[in-house]
Amino acid sequence: MRIVFMGTPEFAIPSLEKLVASSHKTVAVVTGADVPRGRGQSVCATPVKDSASRYGLPVLCPTDLKSDDFFEKLSSFKPELGVVVAFRILPERIFTLPTKGTVNLHASLLPKYRGAAPINWALINGESKTGVTTFLIQKTVDTGNIILQEELDIFPDETAGELSVRLAEVGANLLLKTIDLIEKEEIKPKKQDDSQTSLAPKIVKEMCRIDWSKPALELKNLIRGLSPIPGAFTFFRGKVLKVYRVRITDQQYPQAKAGEIIGSDNIGSFTVKAKDKGLELLEVQLEGKKRMTAVEFAKGCRFRVCDRLD
């Protein structure tokens, strides 16, 4: 089949690579525009654009998905199927343009975690299982009829970044299987059970600040659910301290206050009091510094008795 692939981040690359290596023909790739990134704000292409360029595929980077110009360019490729992996919301005339419609790979077991950040929210909410879903796109976001699903266990200390890598690989295989079934006209789409819906809205900065008055398990799940991007944060001596990985201690420290640094040893590790237990910080990044182990950070900062995280 003639396929137009639409995606932007690293998560979409395994799917694009599987598609290119398959018997299907990827006639074009649609991705986000080049944007400034990093401290130097140098203009960089999206991961999907870089990958597509290596394969010599035509790439479209529309700023307006509703424009006539984009519609005409996409039409010129005569797509039979649209494939979406981590891309923007499509106008109806775009997702209905391919003769066989448009299929989406979503990183959850729909209808659970509809929205922009399903991987993050599954971890933040302490789920033990998640998965991937392929479905046919319709007008309302993430509500289309399900084609295939595959379930995965979530590891207890797994971060969003680590889980994303696993889901991307599993999802790529599921997507290719889905496309093969569509070509053979063997799919049996199943309507989603809207009564089981949960949402996974976009992560905003206000959600990322650590509230040390909350239980240790809740904070651990928040931290791993936001690691590495955008990263949960707190404040240390007036500077932003991002926290990427923690471990819950067995002790409760009843005399300590939430956010108080209650354990620091000559090895350099340190523990912070949450509502009920301590959280040992394992990987952190202080504002203006590189990401490092908490051991490295603690050795260099010389803790004082009054130090706390806010």
How would you characterize the overall build of this protein?
The protein has 310 residues and is an alpha/beta fold. The protein has 2 domains: 2-196, Formyl transferase, N-terminal domain (Rossmann fold, 3-Layer(aba) Sandwich); 205-301, Roll (Methionyl-tRNA Fmet Formyltransferase, Chain A, domain 2), CATH 3.10.25. 25% of the residues lie in helices and 26% in strands. It has 8 helices and 15 strands. The protein has helices at 13-21, 47-54, 68-75, 92-95, 118-124, 160-183, 216-225, 294-301, and strands spanning 2-7, 25-30, 35-37, 42-44, 59-60, 81-85, 102-106, 129-136, 146-153, 232-236, 239-248, 261-264, 270-273, 278-286, 292-293. It has a 7-stranded mixed sheet with strand order 5-2-1-6-7-8-9. Strands 10, 11, 12, 13, 14 and 15 form a 6-stranded antiparallel sheet that branches. The mean pLDDT is 94.
